Fold this sequence. Notes:
Blueprint: H1 4-9, E1 17-20, E2 24-28, E3 36-42, H2 54-74, E4 83-85, E5 101-105
Antiparallel strand pairs: 1-2, 2-3, 3-5, 4-5
Amino acid sequence: xxxxxxxxxxxxxxxxxxxxxxxxxxxxxxxxxxxxxxxxxxxxxxxxxxxxxxxxxxxxxxxxxxxxxxxxxxxxxxxxxxxxxxxxxxxxxxxxxxxxxxxxxxxxx
Length: 109
Protein backbone atom coordinates (compact mmCIF):
# COMPACT_ATOMS: atom_id res chain seq x y z
CA UNK A 1 0.00 0.00 0.00
CA UNK A 2 1.18 3.51 -0.79
CA UNK A 3 2.10 5.95 1.96
CA UNK A 4 -1.10 7.61 3.21
CA UNK A 5 0.63 11.00 3.46
CA UNK A 6 1.88 10.69 -0.13
CA UNK A 7 -1.71 9.87 -1.12
CA UNK A 8 -2.95 12.99 0.68
CA UNK A 9 -0.23 15.13 -0.94
CA UNK A 10 -1.25 13.76 -4.36
CA UNK A 11 -4.91 14.61 -3.54
CA UNK A 12 -5.94 10.95 -3.85
CA UNK A 13 -7.05 10.86 -0.19
CA UNK A 14 -9.01 13.58 1.62
CA UNK A 15 -7.60 15.80 4.33
CA UNK A 16 -8.60 19.06 5.98
CA UNK A 17 -5.75 21.13 4.54
CA UNK A 18 -4.93 24.38 6.35
CA UNK A 19 -1.73 25.35 4.50
CA UNK A 20 0.16 24.36 1.38
CA UNK A 21 3.22 25.59 -0.46
CA UNK A 22 5.63 24.00 -2.93
CA UNK A 23 7.36 21.92 -0.23
CA UNK A 24 4.97 21.47 2.72
CA UNK A 25 1.37 20.38 3.24
CA UNK A 26 -0.35 21.02 6.58
CA UNK A 27 -3.60 19.36 7.55
CA UNK A 28 -5.65 18.70 10.67
CA UNK A 29 -4.86 15.52 12.60
CA UNK A 30 -7.73 13.03 12.34
CA UNK A 31 -7.30 12.19 16.05
CA UNK A 32 -6.55 15.57 17.63
CA UNK A 33 -5.27 15.77 21.18
CA UNK A 34 -5.94 19.52 21.51
CA UNK A 35 -8.07 22.25 19.90
CA UNK A 36 -5.19 22.95 17.50
CA UNK A 37 -3.48 19.79 16.26
CA UNK A 38 -2.10 19.78 12.73
CA UNK A 39 0.50 17.76 10.87
CA UNK A 40 3.22 19.51 8.88
CA UNK A 41 4.30 17.11 6.16
CA UNK A 42 7.09 17.62 3.62
CA UNK A 43 5.89 16.75 0.13
CA UNK A 44 9.09 14.81 -0.51
CA UNK A 45 8.80 11.33 0.96
CA UNK A 46 11.34 10.71 3.71
CA UNK A 47 10.34 7.76 5.90
CA UNK A 48 11.88 8.80 9.24
CA UNK A 49 14.33 11.30 10.68
CA UNK A 50 16.86 8.46 10.41
CA UNK A 51 16.53 8.78 6.62
CA UNK A 52 17.18 12.53 6.49
CA UNK A 53 20.14 13.20 4.22
CA UNK A 54 22.19 16.23 5.21
CA UNK A 55 22.87 17.35 1.65
CA UNK A 56 19.36 16.75 0.36
CA UNK A 57 16.90 17.39 3.22
CA UNK A 58 18.28 19.95 5.68
CA UNK A 59 16.54 22.90 4.00
CA UNK A 60 13.28 21.00 3.80
CA UNK A 61 13.38 20.01 7.46
CA UNK A 62 14.12 23.63 8.38
CA UNK A 63 11.06 24.72 6.38
CA UNK A 64 8.88 22.66 8.73
CA UNK A 65 9.90 24.96 11.59
CA UNK A 66 9.45 28.11 9.50
CA UNK A 67 5.94 27.07 8.48
CA UNK A 68 5.09 26.11 12.08
CA UNK A 69 6.18 29.56 13.25
CA UNK A 70 4.14 31.21 10.50
CA UNK A 71 1.00 29.25 11.40
CA UNK A 72 1.44 29.92 15.13
CA UNK A 73 1.55 33.66 14.38
CA UNK A 74 -1.41 33.41 12.00
CA UNK A 75 -3.47 31.54 14.62
CA UNK A 76 -2.38 33.94 17.40
CA UNK A 77 -0.97 31.18 19.62
CA UNK A 78 2.58 32.48 19.94
CA UNK A 79 1.86 34.05 23.35
CA UNK A 80 0.06 31.05 24.83
CA UNK A 81 2.59 28.61 23.43
CA UNK A 82 2.51 25.49 21.34
CA UNK A 83 4.32 22.19 21.05
CA UNK A 84 6.19 20.81 18.04
CA UNK A 85 6.78 17.05 18.04
CA UNK A 86 8.51 14.70 15.63
CA UNK A 87 8.20 11.01 16.45
CA UNK A 88 10.83 8.62 15.08
CA UNK A 89 10.14 4.92 14.57
CA UNK A 90 7.47 2.76 16.17
CA UNK A 91 9.17 2.88 19.57
CA UNK A 92 9.14 6.68 19.35
CA UNK A 93 5.45 6.82 18.49
CA UNK A 94 5.69 7.22 14.71
CA UNK A 95 2.65 5.62 13.09
CA UNK A 96 3.03 6.78 9.47
CA UNK A 97 6.36 6.15 7.73
CA UNK A 98 6.69 9.68 6.35
CA UNK A 99 8.47 12.38 8.36
CA UNK A 100 5.99 14.82 9.85
CA UNK A 101 5.77 17.35 12.64
CA UNK A 102 2.82 17.76 15.00
CA UNK A 103 1.88 21.33 15.97
CA UNK A 104 -0.33 21.19 19.07
CA UNK A 105 -1.82 24.01 21.14
CA UNK A 106 -4.77 24.82 23.35
CA UNK A 107 -4.67 21.90 25.73
CA UNK A 108 -4.51 22.93 29.37
CA UNK A 109 -3.16 20.56 32.04
